TrEMBL record:
One of its GO terms (biological process) is DNA repair. The keyword Repeat applies. It is found in: Cytoplasm. It comes from Planococcus citreus. Belongs to the ABC transporter superfamily. UvrA family. GO terms for molecular function: ATP binding; ATP hydrolysis activity; DNA binding; nuclease activity. PANTHER family: UVRABC SYSTEM PROTEIN A (PTHR43152). Keywords: ATP-binding, Cytoplasm, DNA damage, DNA excision, DNA repair, DNA-binding, Excision nuclease, Nucleotide-binding, Repeat. Signal peptide: none annotated. This is UvrABC system protein A.
């Protein structure tokens, strides 16, 4: 009798581009899904496997509880059996407000507050009073933020310009905004006089407002008539509207726009902790709660282990596993007070992984979306050991991955393809590593790194002198111009501080592409994101004599039944939600009137069904051609103009973001890990784009861990030797060929990559 395998059985999968596929995924194994970006990996793993598991888990709860929980629609599939509970670690960036720290994200802070409330001396009271967000616990000077943010008047105002010439550098307070118009036309100030020529009295009125006890009024001209409004001064207005609030809630401007015009210093009253001085008097073994928050995690472990009080020991033991998990993932140099927004991509990725790994439960399916994202090869080694330990604890591991080191840990490899988009959605290969080597699949496990033996020689360099941002230790470095440069090093070694801090400070004209999301949604399409939808609408409007809004499903052209969504979601009370294609528009989103007008034989929907590759043959407007060509350059020619950004894979989003920046004319491009989410084959395509940019006279600088891109560069700079306090130094500067002889971590892995 053949041995019966315990497997997850999936039959007839049809989500997104999946072509009615069947899969058996073995349990208690490491299963790696690979294939080109957009080939269907996420459609299997997230949209089918994870969604169905979560849906079935909620069925175990009573209806009144289920009604309060997230609700999942049954995926498009014929059969989904033998699923187990899932823990999902997605690729999406860690989100948090300006107060979010490692301690709050990992839920360690509440336990530390509880610890101090129970055994701290002198006693304070409840655990909530140890929080900077409580009325008792927050610092009266900085309102719990730990920083005093003050506007810098020399950043806010260009004293050589007049109000009419936009002397005020902050857009909401400058013309043509209403506040700027009011300042210009209200009669209090001469709008054509340079600020430096104002009398002292007028300057003080403009900047600080009227003297204490006095009031000043300025006329604002409405369409309906005039009205006098009280003038309070630029600085008081800026502080009231843009400083004394949670900057993450700003809508018109970003918090970065505000902070660019300010100086930030630790609050002198609470020494940067955000806590009331009375709270800081309470201590455990000589340390207050702010000291605890600043300890490196390795030191914090020692302090938690020192606690002898029975109640304190019980609380400390609950915090211990999460801290140990972070240390085990190589993040021992972080502290609980470290702001999540300041973590590098690799650090954030590991904190996210650690958050989900504190459980000792087994028979769970752990799903990871590119866990290697943002990690140095040395850290990937640590990651693969972690995946093996999860499997060895009788769990099933499902990983979407492109990194060969992670793929080589797999017990089962499933390659999706053969192409991407419409050309994907099939299982190209399933089996062990040896079988993949023999199959005609895209993933080459024996791939070797090719070192650039003829690097470009630079005539000029970009200079950074004595940089001390974050953990940088007085770094000075020369970066070749008109070359492809890679900046590498372990997570937290200072790469981003050097390039996105010091470098962009010296060279503000740099086109910097970070790792932020693009704001994907069901109503945002490739055409709208790339800024060509309005051109397409204007072509149809000109042809038909109708308003351009008729060709928008967000405006006049929306189907009246589904309001431009293309789907309806009928109220099914407590049953599983269900999405139905709109019967009126058949999912097109447009009204019959909008669809009745054509350009070159195609209506708006048929135009949006064109692939990027087909677009230039049909739409010949130079503006459209130029933008569409950038999408082709980054290998997205298979996507359609109307594809929603919310349906794109991580690798497709990364390339779309890159394409939107490539359409800008620039001399210096700084890219933070452009290889994220991309298959080795896609990376080769991207490398061609970078080399072409350099050949046209641009400078391209990559912050990268990918050995293929590092090896192909003209110049490499490595930061290190470790992360946090132990980083911030330049370990190596030179060509990839020279790096092969260096004694650094990246050099070690580069030598391994060349050997294969």
């Amino acid at each position: 009798m053949p041995e019966k395998r315990d497997e997850i059985i999936l039959r007839g999968l049809r989500e997104n581009n999946l072509k009615n596929i069947d899969l058996n995924i073995p349990k208690e194994k490491i299963n790696v899904f690979t294939g080109l970006s957009g080939s269907g990996k996420s459609s299997v793993v997230f949209d089918t496997l994870a969604t169905e598991s979560r849906r079935q888990m909620t069925l175990n709860y009573p209806l009144y509880i289920r009604h309060q929980m997230p609700r999942y629609e049954r995926p498009h599939a014929d059969l989904m059996q033998h699923l187990s509970p899932v823990v999902v670690v997605e690729q999406k960036p860690v989100r948090g407000n300006s107060r979010s720290t490692v301690g709050t994200y990992m839920d360690i802070d509440p336990l530390i507050r509880l610890l101090f409330s129970r055994i701290g001396s002198p006693p304070i009271g409840s655990a909530t009073e140890f929080s900077s967000e409580s009325s008792f616990g927050n610092c009266p000077e900085c309102n719990g933020f730990g920083e005093v943010v003050t506007p810098d008047i020399h950043k806010l105002i260009d004293h050589t310009k007049s109000i009419r010439e936009s002397a005020v550098r902050f857009k909401p307070l400058a013309p043509p905004g209403w506040q700027g118009r009011w300042m210009r036309d209200g009669g209090l100030f001469d709008p054509d006089l340079p600020i430096k020529d104002f009398t002292e009295e007028k300057y003080n009125l403009l900047v600080y407002g009227p003297p204490e006890g006095e009031r000043a009024f300025s006329t604002y001209y409405y369409k309906e008539g005039d009205r006098d409004i009280e003038w309070d001064g630029l600085l008081p207005r800026f502080i009231r509207l843009y400083i004394n609030r949670d900057l993450t809630k700003l809508k018109i401007v970003s918090q970065e726009d505000v902070l660019a015009l300010t100086t930030r210093t630790p609050c002198p009253v609470c020494e940067g902790s955000g806590l009331n001085p009375r709270v800081l008097e309470c201590k455990i073994n000589g340390l207050n709660i702010a000291n605890y928050a600043r300890l490196e995690l390795t030191e914090l472990l020692g302090e938690l282990e020192k606690i002898g009080d029975p109640i304190g020991k019980s609380i400390a033991q609950q915090a211990h596993p999460s801290v140990k998990q972070l240390v085990g993932l190589g993040l021992g140099y972080l502290s609980l007070s470290r702001k999540m927004g300041t973590l590098s991509g690799g650090e954030a990725q590991r904190v996210k992984i650690a958050r989900h790994l504190g459980s000792s439960l087994n028979n769970i399916t752990y799903i990871f979306d590119e866990p290697s994202a943002g990690l140095h090869p040395e850290e990937i080694n640590m990651l693969t050991h972690m995946l093996e330990s999860i499997r060895d604890n009788y769990n099933t591991v499902v990983v979407i991955e492109h990194n060969l080191a992670v793929i080589k840990t797999a017990d089962e490899i499933i390659e999706m393809g053969p192409g991407a988009g419409r050309s994907g959605g099939e299982v190209v290969y399933q089996g062990g590593q040896e079988g993949l080597r023999k199959a005609s699949a895209l993933t080459d496990l024996d791939h070797t790194v090719t070192v650039n033996e003829q690097p470009r020689t630079a005539e000029n360099t970009f200079s950074i002198k004595h940089a001390s941002d974050n953990n940088l230790k007085n770094v000075s470095v020369e970066i070749p111009q008109n070359a492809l440069v890679s900046v590498c090093g372990v997570s937290g070694s200072g790469k981003s501080s050097l390039m996105f801090g010091a470098f962009t400070g010296n060279y503000p004209e740099t086109i910097a592409v970070g790792q932020g999301s693009i704001g994907t949604s069901s109503r945002s399409t490739l055409a709208t994101y790339m800024g060509i939808m309005s051109d397409i609408r204007s072509i149809l409007a000109k042809q038909s004599g109708q308003p351009a809004g008729l060709f928008s499903f967000n405006s006049l052209g929306a189907c009246p039944v589904c309001e431009g969504k293309g789907i309806t979601t009928p109220n099914v009370a407590f049953a599983d939600p269900v999405t139905v294609t709109c019967e009126a528009c058949k999912g097109t989103r447009y009204s019959d009137e909008a669809l009745s007008y054509r350009y070159k034989g195609k209506n708006i929907v048929e135009i949006l069904e064109l692939t990027i590759d087909e677009t230039n043959e049909y739409l010949e407007m130079p503006k459209i051609v130029k933008k569409v060509d950038t999408l082709k350059d980054v290998g997205l020619g298979y996507l359609t103009l109307g594809q929603t950004t919310g349906s794109l894979s991580g690798g497709e989003v990364q390339r779309l973001k890159l394409a939107s920046h490539l359409k800008k004319e620039g001399q210096i491009y700084l890219l933070d890990e452009p290889s994220l989410g991309l298959h080795t084959r896609d990376n080769a395509h991207l490398l061609d784009v970078f080399q072409a940019l350099v050949d046209k006279g641009n400078s391209v600088i990559l912050i990268e861990h990918n050995l293929n891109l590092i090896a192909a560069s003209d110049w490499v700079i490595e930061m290190g030797p470790s992360g946090g306090k132990k980083g911030g130094e330049v370990l190596f500067e030179g060509t990839p060929q020279e790096m092969l002889e260096a004694d650094t971590l990246t050099a070690k892995w580069l030598r391994d990559g060349v050997k294969g």
